[in-house]
């Protein structure tokens, strides 16, 4: 409700901040519990080849359904996990779960080319992250080149050369690297030059406006061109309409992801979708 402005407004504002802080601390406690009680789940969103309309890969996305608060978005709890260090065990859990899921699928004839996992740059601060990641991949029996790691250049880096060394190490091991949300982050063109990446993911904000905003149209086709000339593969995120799909097809985009095909879904549903879309010819 509207309160009169003036001498009370400062006080009201800081109360609001206190509420937010309380809620955040509450979420942090709940997140610790959720990790402990295995209440986090991985869902999988299909990545589709634009030429063949076949399902090529899956992006693993974290889901948290709180018993009282309901579903909580990763956009809310990932930053909390990053600030509290919870992202380290959580990130390794995601990696382990995802590579084992793909290994399992492939043994059942679900021959995806890749599984994508999102990584926070803060995970790379942990000295033994690369070693642990390699260990998880080796133990799953999955060939490392079937794993794609997605990173977002959202923050200025404290130690860029350390990150580059670690990414080179993972790449030499065989892992593929993708730059997520391309076009929106901090200093993207610089990272394009500095990091050993294989894939660019065009941010969904450009795709969403392809047909309503001519600059999004121009930026999207420019990013595709840029990727091609740097020999990078390109994935469009957030594809929701046939019109967007056609635009991307015409501009020679490699793969797309979005609600047009499917949101992120549980593993068993993903398997059925694969069987429908990639009807096995014998
Ligand atoms: P992201 O990696 O860029 O993932 C794409 C987000 O867009 C996902 O949101 C996905 O559900 C949503 N999306 C996909 N297709 C469409 C579409 O057609 N329309 C719209 N409107 N949205 C679409 P989600 O799952 O809420 O994840 C948000 C972000 O949280 C992710 O962005 C990623 O940065 C982060 N995240 C999720 N899981 C993990 C994780 O396991 N580890 C880390 N470090 N970050 C994660
Ligand atoms: Mg991603
Ligand atoms: Mg993205
Ligand atoms: Mg993102």
TrEMBL record:
It comes from the Bacteria. The keyword Zinc does not apply. Keywords: Membrane, Transmembrane, Transmembrane helix. Residues 24-278 form the EAL domain. This is Bifunctional diguanylate cyclase/phosphodiesterase.
